[in-house]
């Protein structure tokens, strides 16, 4: 009887350890994805393609959508969108907030993240300033232990703060 109880206790402890391990694993994965999103923010704001090349999976058929336009492939995104903005804009300020991360499948090797966005900037040539808000979605796959963005989609419109009604 003692062996039976001991076996059950050992089994219960191992299940509890595994469950705790999954939570730690999930937190580690969430942190890794948040770090990727923060590095992408840095890349956009500084016209730096390195965070994109490090964190995006470059594959045939890759497409990245930004407010109605799309870049086919990582080189197109970096060379025709991210890096040229460094010279075209006096400044670019990007904020991601309300980030939600969802994991899919038993292996949790696929994730998607959605974030509210706010982007402000000033165009060098015209001096025009813009202030837009919207949402960004990132689709990610875990490859060889590292998360990689396989698709992103951003959509925004002119920022219009919600009116507060006074009674």
From TrEMBL:
Signal peptide range in chain numbering: 1-19
Keywords attached to this entry: Signal
Stretches assigned to the SnoaL-like domain: 83-156
Coiled-coil region: none
UniProt keyword NADP, yes or no: no
Pfam families: SnoaL_3 (PF13474)
Entry protein name: DUF4440 domain-containing protein
Domain of life, per lineage: Bacteria
